Amino acid sequence: MSLGIKITDGIHWIGVNDFETHLFEALWPLPKGVSYNAYMIVDEKVVLIDTVKGPYFSTYLDKLKSLLPVGKTVDYLVVNHMEPDHSGSIKVLREAFPEVKIIGNQKTADMLGAFYGLTDNLVVVRDGEELSLGEKRLVFYMTPMVHWPETMMTYEKSTGVIFSGDAFGGFGALNGGIFDDEVDVDYYEDEVLRYFSNIVGRYSAMVQKAFEKLKGVDIKIICATHGPVWRNDPAHIINLYDRWSKQQTEEGVVLVYGSMYGNTQKMMEAVAAGLVKGGVEKIRVHNISTSHLSFIIRDIWRFKGLVLGSCTYNMELFPPMKQLVNAIENRMMVNRKIGIFGSYTWSGGALKELQEFAGKSKCERVGPVIEAKSSPTAEDIDRCVELGMNMAKAVKS
Ligand SMILES: Cc1cc2nc3c(=O)[nH]c(=O)nc-3n(C[C@H](O)[C@H](O)[C@H](O)COP(=O)(O)O)c2cc1C
C-alpha cells in the first residue's frame, strides 16, 4: 500500500508533519505545527526531491519504500535547499541507498561537505540544465538567496510541477488534505505570510529575481517544502508572493506599544481612536510584551501604516521594542507610513531612539510626535488622536 499522496502521474508527496517543535529555527512559534514536504518521482529513474528534518526520517523512509517499484532503487536525490529541516535526513538516506546520486549546485555541494561530510557521488548542475528521467524531464533553476545562497527550484516539464523549496511555503501542519482545494486556504494564508515576512522577506529583491527567471515557465502545480500543494489555483499564491516581495501593502494600521504601567497604553488607545475617527477599519494592536514578534512582523508586512509607542527603560527604548525595531530594520521594510510616540519620567530615551529609527527608515513620517512625561496630559491625548487621524489620511491616500 502506498503511504504517499499522489500529486499527479508519477509524482508523490512523501512529507511529514511536525506537531512537536515549539519554535521553528528556534525562533518562530508553531501554534499550528509545520509540515516538511518532500516529494518522489517514479519514472524510469526514481528521484527524491528534498528530505525531511532528521527525527522524521523513518516516516519518510516508510513512505518512499511504499512507492518504490520492486527491483528499483533511488537513483537521485535533488537538494533544492540545504537548511537542515529539509537536508537533515540526507546522511541517513545515503546510508539506506549508498548508490544514490545527490543533485545540487556548487554551493549545495560545499554545504553537503560542511554539514554532513558528503563529498562523493554528487552531480553539480548549472542554471537551466536538464535531466531526463524517462518520460519526465527535470529543469534546474538557480534562485539564490531565497533565502539561502544555494536555493534552487526544480521544474518537471511534462506535468508543469515546480518544486519551489521554501518559496510559497508556510507554517501549519497539513491536517489530512495537502492540496489548496482540500484545505481551508485562509487558515494557511496568514501562516504563509508569517513565514514569508519573518524568514524570506528580507530577501524580497531575490524573490523578484526568481520571478524574472521563471517568467514564461508554465507552472501548473506548486510543490513547496512547507504548507499546502497549490494545484487548484497556483496563481493565487504567486500573486500574493509577488505583492509581498514588492512590499505592496493594504489599507490598515498596525499599532505596537510598550507599556509597563499603562500610561503609554493610554496614548496608544488615543491613537487608535483617531484611526477609527479617520475611517480606518483594519487596525491591529500589539502589546509588545505579549504578542510574539513574528505575528507583529507579519502584520507590519501586510499593512501600510505603522505606529510605534514606547516607554523609557533605563535611559533607552523598552527592551522588546528595541528588538522589534532591529527586526524591522533587518527586514529592510519600505513603502510604509510611520508615526511614533513615547513616554518618560526623568531623563527620557525611548522617543529619541524611535526618532532615530524612523529617520533612518525608508518610510514616510506622519506626525505629530508625542512625548508624555509620566502620564499623558489631556493635550498629549488630543495630539495622539490627531496622530491617528493623520495616519488614517496617510493610509487612505
Ligand atoms: C524599571 C524602570 C526604568 C525606567 N527608566 C527610565 C529612564 O531611564 N528614564 C526615564 O525618563 N524614565 C524611566 N522610567 C519611567 C518610565 O519610562 C515612565 O514612568 C513611563 O511613563 C512609564 O510608562 P508606562 O506606564 O506605559 O509603563 C523607568 C521606569 C521603570 C519602571
UniProtKB/TrEMBL annotation:
GO terms for molecular function: electron transfer activity; FMN binding; metal ion binding; oxidoreductase activity. SMART domains: Lactamase_B. Pfam families: Flavodoxin_1, ODP. Gene3D superfamilies: 3.40.50.360, Ribonuclease Z/Hydroxyacylglutathione hydrolase-like (3.60.15.10). Residues 253-392 form the Flavodoxin-like domain. It comes from the Bacteria. PANTHER family: ANAEROBIC NITRIC OXIDE REDUCTASE FLAVORUBREDOXIN. This is Flavodoxin/nitric oxide synthase. It comes from Mesotoga infera.
